[in-house]
Write a structure and sequence with these properties.
Largest sheet of chain B: none
Largest interface: A-B, 32 and 27 residues
Number of strands of chain A: 14
Distance between the termini of chain A: 33 Å
Oligomer: heterodimer
Order of helices and strands of chain A: EEEHEEHEHHHEHEHEEHEHEEHEH
Strand content of chain A: 25-35%
Structural class of chain A: alpha/beta
Shape of chain A: elongated
Number of domains of chain A: 2
Helix content of chain A: 25-40%
Low-confidence stretches of chain A: none
Mean pLDDT of chain A: 84
Number of domains of chain B: 1
Helix content of chain B: over 70%
Order of helices and strands of chain B: HHHHHHHHHHHHH
Structural class of chain B: mainly alpha
Radius of gyration of chain A: 25 Å
Radius of gyration of chain B: 20 Å
Strand order of the largest sheet of chain A: 6-7-8-3-9-10
Mean pLDDT of chain B: 90
């Protein structure tokens, strides 16, 4: 559906995008992740035909953007980060205007726009001026205009930025609903958002591709070790237990973290990640005569991975 | 075509809902009214004095002594006022970010530029139509040549078309409306003064500047002479400025 080959964009001496390549299958939801200035918006602007790449090529819906930009744009719905709207137009007027530009036939226009407004929850503000909408509604309007004309591809630049938590949840659910039927690119610097919504993530830093994979694989590929936190009580000799745990193959270190009241002891275990060490640890503790109160594997968030990747990239340079 | 009209409609709404338009329209009508009145006063004085002087009355001419100076005065107003209307055209959309979105819709830059140009042209034509009250008054109390009035208004429309295209060009290059207005005014003034700057030696520069001078092509029209060369000048300059606007938009895709 989308193919990007060696895309490079320079603004004067600044390299905004450096030799980026990736592909997308129809129906996929892809996340762009990266710090500010990583090249997310530049990539998006090239894909939407707003910018011309300095080097490399991109195909959208089979059309080369250098030659068939207008045809490619027939297939794209775009929500820019700033969600620009014509302030003096009512919500319905604005969407009608967009429908005309996207060549939605007049006969089906009304039904089409009604559907979109219902889907985006714009029904109650349809006769309000766009300039008077709250940030949340404005964002929905932005999403609605992207959906006009039923494009196969939606490109959403930071769709939840500046929204309150409730609005963020609503917009995410809307995006999730849209997925499956449509190919979606979602750029964000909010990591949980990307890991919740996207099947694949592209991590960009300073215009370069740092990693591309599923959120799970990114996690697995990077974490060779597990960190397990234990709370135990009732036993007599902590040192004996620690010694015993250390003898388990796979376990690298065992450290008491703190002694709590009522003889509760908290331990941290670092072990090789594969295979899962937790059943062995649980059994050993119980067999040694301790009560296992809590066993918790600290999974690393996408955030840790992201920071690790980006800092590793920077230290290589 | 649908996209073109959608853009024309939207921009017209933008103009007619903006306070700037009403400020411009009010001052425009006030000034044209004032000019009409003052020129009329001068002309009545001339015709009073010609009543005493039969020789003078022979040379008294409504077209030459009233309509033509008035038309020239009107043209000066366009020089100043059209930039105030065109400055919004692209600058406002660039500032608000709506242009980015518009250019990612499946419309060509050409449609966007033509739509925006047509919207200003329609807005200015609306103001021109309001000024028809002045020739209306003339027809009520005098007998001007209808063809002369028609060719004068054709001249207005042609001049408005060039100034509008120049204003759209200036507006496409900046998101600051003040700068857009000033640059547009500068461009207009260069066309206006080209004839004055021209060295009267018959050389190449003289020919070029004479040809560029908007006044040289406007004056025949307010004298009632409709020549193809003048019309070609107005059309080609308009197209030239709109073409440059397209180049500006295209270069943005490279420069970001």
């Amino acid at each position: 559906m989308i193919e990007v080959q060696n895309l490079t964009k320079r603004f004067g001496d600044t390299v905004a995008l450096d030799n980026l390549s990736f592909q997308m299958k129809p129906g996929e939801i892809l996340g762009f992740l990266g710090p500010n200035g990583a090249g997310k918006t530049t990539t998006i602007r090239i894909l939407t035909g707003y910018l011309t790449p300095t080097d490399g090529n991109a195909w959208v819906a089979g059309y080369n953007l250098r030659e068939k930009s207008r045809e490619a744009r027939d297939h794209i719905g775009y929500l820019p980060e700033s969600v620009p709207v014509y302030r003096e137009m009512m919500v319905t007027e604005y969407l009608e205007f967009v429908a005309d530009l996207k060549k939605v036939p007049r006969a089906s226009r009304k039904n089409h726009l009604d559907d979109i407004m219902n889907q985006c929850g714009l029904g109650e503000v349809r006769n309000k001026l766009s300039g008077h909408l709250s940030k949340g509604y404005r964002q929905r309007l932005g999403l609605a205009q992207a959906m006009v004309g039923n494009p196969d591809i939606l490109i959403l630049d930071e769709p939840t930025s500046g929204l309150d938590p409730q609005q963020i949840i609503e917009i995410r659910e809307l995006i999730r609903d849209l997925g499956g039927r449509r190919t979606i690119i979602l750029s964000s610097h909010i990591l949980p958002e990307v890991s919740q919504l996207c099947e694949r993530v592209i991590i960009l830093n300073r215009g370069r591709l740092v990693a591309v994979d599923t959120p799970e694989n990114l996690d697995r590929g990077l974490s060779s070790t597990d960190s397990i936190l234990l709370e135990i009580s009732g036993g007599s000799e902590p040192d004996g237990l620690i010694g015993m745990l250390k003898n388990i193959h796979q376990i690298r270190t065992v450290q008491p973290v703190s002694h709590l009241e009522n003889g509760v002891l908290r331990l941290q275990i670092i072990a090789d990640g594969q295979p899962d060490i937790r059943p062995v640890v649980a059994r050993s503790i119980v067999e040694a005569g301790w009560n296992l109160l809590e066993l918790h594997r600290q999974t690393r968030s996408l955030e840790d991975i992201f920071i690790q990747l980006v800092t590793r990239e920077e230290s290589v340079q | 075509m649908k996209a073109f009209w959608a853009i024309v409609n939207r921009d017209l709404r933008g103009y007619f809902l903006s306070p700037i338009f009403y400020a411009v329209a009010t001052v425009f009508l006030l000034l044209t009214g004032l000019l009409f009145y003052s020129n009329l006063v001068v002309y009545t004085q001339i015709s009073f004095s010609s009543m005493q002087n039969p020789y003078f009355s022979e040379t008294l001419n409504l077209a030459a002594d009233f309509i033509r100076p008035l038309a020239a005065n009107f043209a000066v107003i366009f020089l100043f006022f059209i930039p105030a209307i065109t400055m919004r055209s692209f600058s406002e959309e660039k500032r608000a970010g709506t242009l980015e979105l518009m250019l990612t819709y499946p419309v060509s830059d050409f449609q966007v530029i033509l739509g925006k140009f047509a919207a200003v042209l329609i807005t200015m034509s609306f103001l021109l139509i309001l000024t028809l009250i002045y020739p209306g008054l003339l027809f009520a109390w005098s007998t001007p040549e209808p063809a002369l009035i028609a060719s004068t208004y054709l001249g207005f429309l042609m001049m408005v078309s060039i100034f509008t295209a120049a204003g759209i060009l200036a507006s496409s290059a900046t998101e600051n409306q003040i700068i857009a207005a000033l640059v547009a005014f500068g461009l207009n003034l260069v066309l206006w003064m080209a004839g004055w700057l021209s060295p009267q030696d018959g050389g190449l520069l003289h020919q070029i500047l004479d040809h560029l001078s908007i006044i040289n092509h406007f004056e025949p029209l307010i004298k009632g002479v409709v020549a193809l060369t003048d019309l070609v000048y107005f059309f080609s300059m308009t197209i030239f400025f709109l073409f440059l606007t397209g180049q500006v938009l295209e270069s943005k895709k490279w420069r970001g």
